[in-house]
Amino acid sequence: MAPAPFAAEAERIRRHVNDTLLAAFSELSEGILIVDREARIVWMNEQYPRHLGIADPASVIGLPVEDVIPNSLMRSVVASGKPIMLDVMEFGSESFVVMRLPVRDSAGTIIGGVGVMIFDDPRQLAPLLSRFQNLRLELADTRRKLDEARRTRYTFASFVGTSPACVAVKDKARRAARAVSPVLILGETGTGKELLAQAIHAASPRADGPFVAVNIAAIPETLLEAEFFGVAPGAYTGADRKGRSGKFELAQGGTLFLDEIGDMSPALQAKLLRALQEKEIEPVGSNRLIPIDVRIIAATSRNLQKDVDEGRFRPDLFYRLNVMTLDVPPLRERIDDLPLIAECLTDSIARQLGEPPRSLSADAIACLAGYTWPGNVRELSNMLERALLLSDADRLEARDFEHLLPAAARATPAPAKASPTRTLDQIQQDAERRAIVDAIASAGGNKAQAARILGISRASLYEKISALGLGSAANT
Ligand SMILES: Nc1ncnc2c1ncn2[C@@H]1O[C@H](COP(=O)(O)OP(=O)(O)OP(=O)(O)O)[C@@H](O)[C@H]1O
C-alpha cells in the first residue's frame, strides 16, 4: 500500500490527539479533575479520588473544589485565565506535582479549568530539581565573587606615610568619609588616589554597599554611556540585546569611583551632571528613569581647574564635584615617607610572591630616595618587585636598584653589558616600562597624551600598563 500523503497523515494524527488527549492524560497521569468557571468540580477520573481518600467520586461532583482539596488553586486559574504549568500541591501529609490549565470555549471565554496530578511523588522531579539547585549554587558563587570584587581592598592603614603632607591628606580623607558630598581627588599618576577612594568608602556609612570603579580613559568613548547608565533590553543586538546594568546601578547604595574624570567628553559630562543633579539615570534605549543612590568619588591626574578655564571641562560639573578636594602630594614632595613605604611594599610584595621577607639596606634606601619618581608609589612598587625577583639576597643593596633606575638617575655607572640573568624579553619589558612611566610623567599624568607621545592607542597603553604590572588601570 502506498504511504499516505504527509498532509493527510498529519491531519489524522492531529485529530486523534484532539479526540483522545483527555483520555490519554487520564490514563497516564495520577489523576485528572475538571471544574466549571465557578470552580465547582464537574468531573474527576478514577485515580484522583483514590489519592484523596474519597470512596465515592460521585459524592464530590458539584462541590466547590476547596471543599474537597483545601489547597487547590483551580479557582485562581479559572478567575485569572493564567495556567500554572508546574507546581507542588500539598494534600494532608502527601505532596503532588500538578499542572493547572484554564479551559476556554470557541469564543475564547473561560468556561472552566483542568487540573492534572502529574506525579504523586515529587522525588520524580529530582533530576530537574538537582539541576536547578546546581544552577542556584553557581549563581550564588558568581554573586559572591562579584561582591568580593566590589569590596574594597584598602583602608586608611594601607596609605602608608607619616610626613606632614601625608598626615594632612589622610585627615582630610577621614573627614570626607564621614560626609555625604562628592569627593574630588587630585594628584599625579600612582600617588594612591584609588587607594584613598577605597579607604574613604570603607570608612563611610556606605561601607557595606558596593565600591565600583570606572577608568574613563580606559574605555572607548562610544561605549562609555552604556557603561555608565546601562542598556535597556532590545536597545542593541548581539551580546547586549537582553539589556545590561550600568555602573551607576551596580554601585546602588555604595560608591562610584570615576577615575580620570578629566578625560570625559563634553557630551558625557552633560549627562553625568544631569544624573548627579536629578539623582536618576536613563539607560540607553529606554525612556524609563531609574532613581540612584550613589556617592561619587572622582579623581584625575590632570589640572582640572585649567581644563575648566580653557573650556575643556564643564564648570558646573567641576563645581558639583569639587566640594571636598584632596590633593595627594607626589612622592618626591614627601620623600621622607619613602623608607617606610618602601619597607611596607617590600613586605607585601614578598608575601604576594610567596617569598621569605627581605629587607632594604640603608644605601638601597638612599639610592631610591635620590630618584624623582615620576610614576610615584606605583613605580616604586614596580621597581621593588623587579629587584626582589632579580636577587636572592635577604637584604637588597643599592646595586640591586641602580641598574633598574633610568640612566640619568643612576648614582653609579651601569654595567657595560646587560646582566646575563636577564632575558631579551625582560630587557624589552623593562625598556617598555621605563618608556611608559617617562611618557606619563612628561604628559603630567595625562594618559591620553602619554599614549600620543608613545605613538600607541589609549587602549593599548592601558593594556601595557596592566600587562607590565604598572597599575590598577585594568581593574575597572
Ligand atoms: N601611601 C601609600 N602607601 C602604600 N601604597 C601606596 C601608597 N600610595 C599608593 N600606593 C600603591 O601604589 C599603587 C598605585 O596606587 P593607586 O592606583 O591608588 O594610584 P592612582 O593615583 O589612583 O593612580 P592612577 O592615577 O594612575 O590611576 C597601588 O598599588 C597602591 O597600593
UniProtKB/TrEMBL annotation:
Q: Which CDD domains match?
A: AAA, PAS
Q: Which UniProt keywords apply?
A: ATP-binding, DNA-binding, Nucleotide-binding, Transcription, Transcription regulation
Q: Name one Pfam family in it.
A: Sigma54_activat
**Sigma-54 factor interaction domain: from which residue to which, for each copy?**
159-389
Q: What InterPro entries does UniProt report for this protein, alphabetically?
A: AAA+_ATPase, AAA_lid_NorR, Homeodomain-like_sf, HTH_Fis, P-loop_NTPase, PAS, PAS-like_dom_sf, PAS_4
Asked if Nucleotide-binding is a keyword of the record, the answer is yes
- Asked if DNA-binding is a keyword of the record, the answer is yes
Sections of the chain in a coiled coil: none
Gene3D superfamilies tied to this protein:
1.10.8.60, Homeodomain-like, P-loop containing nucleotide triphosphate hydrolases, PAS domain
Superkingdom of origin: Bacteria
Transmembrane region positions? none
Family matches, as PANTHER family: TRANSCRIPTIONAL REGULATORY PROTEIN (PTHR32071)
The name under which this protein is listed is: Sigma-54-dependent Fis family transcriptional regulator
